[in-house]
Amino acid sequence: MHNDIGSIVLTEEQIEAACARLGKQLTEDYNGKLPLCVGILKGSVLFMTDLIKHIDTHVEIDFMDVSSYHGGTESTGEVKILKDLGTSVEDRDVIIIEDILETGTTLNSIIDLLKYRKANSIEIVTLLDKPSRRKVDIEAKYVGEKIPDDFVVGYGLDYQEKYRNLPYIGLLKEEVYMK
């Protein structure tokens, strides 16, 4: 699988440094509160696990499985909730943890749902931000790295459910997904 990677976009060390920096910011911003960290499955699992180790205040965690890719390389724009939260968000400070923010359509739908459910506040933390792909007006308050419009995999990000277990984030060779 490593041979399918054209170049490394973020090394393991860079990812760890981003997690530490973001965890410190979240600790300062949520100290004395009990935020609900909502990981968006499946891509955010590795990032969320490493990130919350660096948050030095109490947090609760839950997950949503939301899909807009359906196996391809482009978001379809059709958002499906495959697994909903098991925790009420009413009057809670919610931190959505995402692997990558691209078009924003998925996160926009999630935010609308959480607002409808009366969350007290909603913020986004994302490891990767691709602002050039944005289709809706949405920004993450906490961003690990801004990246160009390339197709990346690894550290939770996949192509056809493969490559999630790479310990780094790499640029997938075009010949792999253009077959």
From TrEMBL:
Its main location: cytoplasm. Its EC number is 2.4.2.8. GO terms for biological process: GMP salvage; guanine salvage; hypoxanthine metabolic process; IMP salvage; purine ribonucleoside salvage. GO terms for molecular function: guanine phosphoribosyltransferase activity; hypoxanthine phosphoribosyltransferase activity; magnesium ion binding; nucleotide binding. GO terms for cellular component: cytosol. InterPro entries: HGPRT, Hxn_phspho_trans, PRTase-like, PRTase_dom. Keywords: Cytoplasm, Glycosyltransferase, Magnesium, Metal-binding, Nucleotide-binding, Purine salvage, Transferase. It catalyses: GMP + diphosphate = guanine + 5-phospho-alpha-D-ribose 1-diphosphate; IMP + diphosphate = hypoxanthine + 5-phospho-alpha-D-ribose 1-diphosphate. Gene3D superfamilies: 3.40.50.2020. The keyword Magnesium applies. NCBIfam families: HGPRTase. Purine salvage pathway enzyme that catalyzes the transfer of the ribosyl-5-phosphate group from 5-phospho-alpha-D-ribose 1-diphosphate (PRPP) to the N9 position of the 6-oxopurines hypoxanthine and guanine to form the corresponding ribonucleotides IMP (inosine 5'-monophosphate) and GMP (guanosine 5'-monophosphate), with the release of PPi. Belongs to the purine/pyrimidine phosphoribosyltransferase family. This is Hypoxanthine phosphoribosyltransferase. It comes from Macrococcus lamae.
